[in-house]
Specification:
The protein is an alpha+beta fold. The protein contains 20 helices and 17 strands. It is 51% helix and 16% strand. It is elongated and about 110 Å long. Keywords: Membrane, Transmembrane, Transmembrane helix.
């Protein structure tokens, strides 16, 4: 049995290796590597960053190590995903052996976990995998430890379980649900075989694990509340049914038969499941048949399904409240990445149903081994097809071309670049300021790659090429009052550079045409906004300056003693490479 189980795990890892290799950095991945390239490993700004409500220091530490070893190389994330998936798969196998022993029937729920499509989207997206896979591993490991602790009383299982919980929490705050889930499975493992008083027995015999978990959760909660800005619910209660329908009928339920078979994607959104209506109906019928047969043949099976239903609600409703809202579509739940841990719970539920004591009249009505083998094989083939269709959708995108091209182009720079946002298909403006090129490209840039000013205006195109650019004449600096000079700048007193019209608060580029008597530094800014220090060179030159602010004039001042500067007319507007 164990050899067959190992073979199944190897098969899963081969398939998942293909899935991972077909992907690339996506969305939050770029935020992770950007912050990893900007901060030291032990920096609180890295480890204790509030990432959209997530507290995940271990995930950021992993991203830092991967980025430090091979910046912008996709091989690093692929390796981490496969290592974490292997750990989760082994933990699930251990859980099943604890619940069922080394019987061949273990292979059925194991195959369900290994190939179920509900885990694929969270695996393929590196940032999601750094959350989801440690959670799956912690769930399976602590469930097994809880059952073993209650069964044997050995304290080492309490220590192991508490350690696994702590690690899971460092990757993903959703691990708070692990102790309650482990308690439920430990209790059900005794209840389904006919024992009584299981709640009290599990609470008493597993006390070291529950007390240790409570202490870990308490310490973690203090850190979480200190780091994370608790967001208000974005969804209205009336929106929840639509989200739940998408998560169940169009999301989780079709995976019971290896669906959804098809996915849709609008770049830059992640793929979401699009099962056919026929598949949805068949999936519900199959699920109803499984539930009905198990309850009819096993008198205590209803408690197992009730636990699964409660877990599903606990997993879905907070996500619906926090991630929903007036600008959120129901397809968000169909992406399935929020529900990957449900695969572990369903696998444990399957093991509990197998171990449950059947009714006396049903002892001879079990499915034949051939039927079980055929159904399992059909499920695996269906799941593999769903995985293949997911990869076809997931592999679309422009990020790989953009990052590989710009990384190669950066070596040819002879002057700094001004700050700009990456293309919206790579990381859209809702992620600002994490979508700034200097942050996304931090792993492969130096301290002088981006600056507030540059003597040569160049920009990164949507394909990653670095090309010459110009400044649109949204506004212009009016000709100055000094004949033959324009605006004379001498000393620290600000000189007003009048514009030919007002400018709204925005990120603007100023083309500053000047004649300087010596090398030095000036400050430049709008009437309303921060000033930027700009180096100037002796002689007649042009410098392009990125300024943020608004007003009808710019203000310039010399900060270098003895610097004498003449400023001529020039454009103030948006930098562009295709005008």
């Amino acid at each position: 049995m164990l050899l067959a189980a190992v073979a199944l795990i190897v098969g899963q890892l081969v398939l998942r290796g293909w899935v991972a290799g077909s992907g690339y950095f996506y969305w939050d991945d770029l935020i992770l590597i950007g912050r990893a390239g900007s901060h030291a490993l032990w920096s609180p700004d890295l480890l204790f960053y509030d990432h959209d409500g997530h507290f995940m220091p271990a995930a950021f530490a992993t991203a830092w190590l991967v980025t430090a070893i091979a910046p912008l190389s996709w091989a690093g994330p692929v390796v981490t995903m496969l290592v974490l998936q292997a750990a989760a798969s082994v933990a699930v196998l251990r859980m099943l052996v604890v619940l069922l022993g080394t019987r061949r029937i273990v292979l059925v729920p194991l195959a369900f976990y290994l190939f179920c499509p509900v885990t694929v989207p969270a695996f393929a997206w590196w940032a999601a995998a750094l959350n989801s896979l440690p959670l799956q591993c912690a769930l399976a490991w602590v469930i097994a430890d809880a059952v073993l602790l209650v069964r044997t009383g050995r304290r080492r299982y309490a220590i192991s379980g508490v350690a696994a919980l702590a690690v899971g929490l460092l990757f993903f705050e959703k691990a708070v649900i692990v102790p309650a889930t482990a308690f439920a499975v430990a209790a059900l493992s005794r209840y389904v075989v006919g024992e009584r008083g299981v709640i009290r027995a599990v609470a008493r015999r597993g006390a070291p694990l529950w007390i240790g978990s409570g202490l870990v959760l308490g310490c973690w909660l203090v850190a979480y509340l200190a780091v994370v800005d608790i967001a208000y619910a974005r969804s209205q209660p009336s929106e929840i049914p639509g989200l739940l329908h998408s998560a169940t009928s169009l999301g989780v339920v079709p995976t019971v038969v290896g669906g959804p078979w098809s996915w849709e994607r609008w770049v830059p959104a992640a793929p979401w499941a699009t099962p056919s209506q026929v598949l949805v109906v068949l999936s519900w019928l199959a699920l109803a048949a499984i539930v009905g047969w198990s309850i009819r043949s096993r008198p205590r099976a209803a408690a197992v399904w009730l636990t699964v239903l409660v877990y599903l609600g606990v997993a879905l409703i907070p996500v619906g409240l926090a991630r929903g809202g007036p600008h959120t579509v129901d397809e968000l739940m169909q992406s399935l990445r929020y529900l990957a841990d449900l695969a572990v719970v369903l696998t444990a539920a399957g093991a509990l149903l197998v171990s449950a004591r059947p009714r006396a009249t049903e002892r001879t009505s079990r499915p034949s081994a051939a039927a079980v083998l055929m159904l399992t094989a059909a499920f695996v083939m269906s799941s593999v097809w769903s995985t293949i269709t997911f990869v076809r959708s997931w592999s679309e995108g422009t990020t790989e071309r953009y990052l590989t091209t710009v990384a190669a182009e950066l070596g040819t720079l002879d002057a700094p670049l001004l700050e700009q946002e990456v293309p919206w298909t790579v990381l859209n403006p809702t992620a600002y300021p994490q979508n700034l090129a200097s942050r996304v490209l931090a792993p492969v840039t130096g301290p002088d790659t981006f600056a507030d000013s540059t003597p040569r205006l160049r920009m990164i195109t949507d394909t990653g090429d670095i090309v010459d650019a110009q400044v649109w004449w949204n506004r212009s600096i009016r000709p100055g009052p000094v004949p033959g000079c324009g605006y004379r700048v001498q000393g620290p007193a600000p000189v007003r550079l009048d514009l030919d019209g007002p400018m709204l608060s925005h990120k603007w580029t100023v083309q500053l045409n000047y004649l300087a008597g010596r090398d030095g530094t000036v400050t430049l800014g709008f009437e309303h906004g921060d000033r930027v220090a700009v180096p100037v060179q002796k002689g007649l030159h042009t410098v392009f300056v990125r300024v943020i602010g608004s007003g009808e004039a710019l203000r310039i001042a010399a900060t270098t003693p003895g610097l004498d500067l003449c400023v001529a007319s020039g454009p103030v507007g948006v930098a562009s490479y295709d005008n």
